[in-house]
């Protein structure tokens, strides 16, 4: 009898224990939430919101904790928004009060914006320089206005190569005086720039999605180096108003995310007309009715004509990279793409030796930066000359041993003269007779190149490009780039998404805590 009672009691206790464990497993505990958030896509998070498995507050708290743990090493985040949790609470309340399906895909989603993108809040906008610390912007950047309207949470500012790597080419990529040296979360080495912090933070799960900017390679390169997806939009497709400028002719703002779909959701949110940036009016003709998400097609490669410019595949036979990209090209074929191989851009040698971009960027930087600085409500500096003087006066603070040769060269320019006009005409001619001619003659939908090696061609013509993770060599990530003519984002999205879904190459970086790899 006692034995039977003991057995019965034991079974009862087991049953209660199992029920309790089952109940606890359904609760949004910190560990469960953290596990689900890592590598989660925007769609994953929105589904968790709908099922009451996650709140925006929990999401922001998770990222704030990750930033606290990892950022001292990685230095991907420059500043955290002190109002981020308040914004999260507002998002949670709106989700309860509003009809299901009435909110945008980015509602309640935390985003980091590069520190050259203005936010009219408690965050600074400094391009990584102490020269702009304490400056007051007149308004949110155009892209930030659109993000706020969509209900996104501005988590903070991402680090960058100081002045978008336009102070000195002698400065390390990913370094700024305010932010320090950003580090690749896979290797703790080169993160590439200038949107280094945006890529580092997304790759290391310090935020859901981010914004970067590109003048020449600054989205595509860090995306390739940090195993994330970057979209460099057609110039003017997204507003540059409120962005610390280099070149109104080449500057563009785009998403850096872990997946193509997330990048497309961000692009869809920030694209469109902004009266503070006239280029957006002309470029708005490229925005498709129904947005960009409709082009997230797994069979998006079917029937696409992809150009292979062999000059960019300069690998030795039998090497890891050679074999990897052979496999990738075969994947593109198997997915229905038509590869037009062994192509050459006729004037490629002239493009590579021509100095027109350097000439143009110098005078454009001075003119546009002076205009930006004068528009600030308050600022320690009001001109490029003031910035140079500040750096000289604060040489230790700004590590002037890295130099400011690019700024000094720009300051020597004096508006748009004969040489400057010729430089602009040269780039238009080189683009038309080179990349555009190749694309149109061969009836290509895109050109496929490894890494960000094609960024210069895309930059001088204002063309779009998408970088997708393509592999790892000794744990060092690298990407593949799809570039096209102006307004070809729908085709590029179809191609990039189809490739991503066929390969699913991206993997998270090693788990590190205080610089120690945790097994």
UniProtKB/TrEMBL annotation:
Domain of life: Eukaryota
Ranges of residues in domain Amidase: 59-452
SUPFAM superfamilies the record matches: Amidase signature (AS) enzymes
One Pfam short name: Amidase
Keyword Acetylation: no
Span of the signal peptide: 1-32
Keywords (A to Z) from UniProt: Signal
PANTHER family to which the protein is assigned, alphabetical: AMIDASE, C869.01-LIKE PROTEIN, PUTATIVE-RELATED
Name of the featured protein: Probable amidase At4g34880 isoform X1
Organism name: Cicer arietinum
Top-level taxonomy: Eukaryota, Viridiplantae, Streptophyta, Embryophyta, Tracheophyta
Gene: LOC101501513
């Amino acid at each position: 009898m006692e034995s039977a009672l003991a057995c019965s009691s034991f079974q009862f206790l087991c049953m209660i224990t199992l029920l309790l464990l089952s109940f606890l497993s359904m609760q949004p505990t910190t560990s469960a939430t953290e596990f689900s958030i890592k590598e989660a896509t925007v769609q994953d998070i929105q589904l968790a919101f709908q099922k009451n498995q996650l709140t925006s507050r929990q999401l922001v708290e998770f990222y704030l904790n990750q930033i606290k743990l990892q950022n001292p090493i990685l230095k991907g985040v420059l500043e955290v928004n002190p109002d981020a949790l308040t914004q999260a609470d507002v998002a949670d309340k709106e989700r309860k009060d509003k009809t299901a399906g009435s909110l945008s895909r980015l509602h309640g989603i935390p985003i980091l914006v590069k520190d050259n993108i203005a936010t009219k809040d408690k965050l600074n906008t400094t391009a990584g320089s102490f020269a702009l610390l304490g400056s007051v912007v007149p308004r949110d950047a155009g892209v930030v206005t659109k993000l706020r309207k969509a209900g996104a949470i501005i988590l903070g500012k991402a680090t960058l190569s100081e002045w978008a790597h336009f102070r000195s080419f002698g400065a390390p990529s990913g370094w700024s005086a305010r932010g320090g040296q950003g580090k690749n979360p896979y290797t703790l080495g080169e993160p590439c720039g200038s949107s280094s912090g945006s890529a580092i933070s997304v790759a290391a799960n310090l935020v859901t999605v981010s914004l970067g900017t590109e003048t020449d390679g600054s989205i595509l390169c860090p995306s390739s180096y940090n195993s994330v997806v970057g979209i460099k939009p057609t110039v003017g497709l997204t507003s540059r108003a409120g962005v610390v400028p280099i070149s109104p002719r080449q500057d563009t703002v785009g998403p850096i995310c872990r997946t193509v779909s997330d990048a497309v959701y961000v692009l869809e949110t920030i694209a469109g007309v902004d009266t503070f940036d006239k280029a957006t009016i002309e470029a708005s003709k490229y925005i498709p009715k129904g947005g960009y998400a409709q082009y997230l097609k797994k069979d998006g490669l079917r029937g696409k004509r992809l150009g292979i410019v062999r000059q960019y595949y300069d690998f030795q036979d039998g090497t890891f990279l050679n074999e990897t990209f052979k496999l990738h090209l075969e994947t593109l074929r198997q997915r229905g793409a038509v590869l037009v191989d062994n192509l050459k851009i006729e004037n490629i040698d002239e493009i590579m030796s021509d100095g027109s971009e350097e000439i143009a960027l110098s005078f454009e930087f001075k003119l546009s930066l002076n205009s930006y600085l004068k528009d600030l409500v308050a600022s320690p500096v009001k001109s490029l000359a003031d910035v140079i003087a500040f750096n000289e006066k604060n040489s230790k603070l700004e590590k002037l041993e890295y130099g400011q040769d690019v700024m000094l060269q720009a300051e020597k320019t004096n508006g748009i003269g004969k040489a400057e006009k010729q430089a602009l005409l040269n780039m238009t001619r080189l683009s038309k007779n080179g990349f555009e001619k190749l694309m149109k003659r061969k009836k290509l939908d895109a050109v496929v190149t490894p890494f960000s090696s094609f960024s210069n061609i895309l930059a001088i013509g204002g063309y779009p490009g998408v970088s997708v993770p393509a592999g790892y060599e000794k744990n060092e990530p690298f990407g593949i780039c799809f570039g096209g003519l102006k307004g070809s984002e729908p085709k590029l999205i179809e191609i990039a998404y189809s490739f991503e879904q066929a390969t699913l190459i991206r993997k998270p970086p090693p788990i590190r805590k205080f610089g120690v790899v945790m097994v």
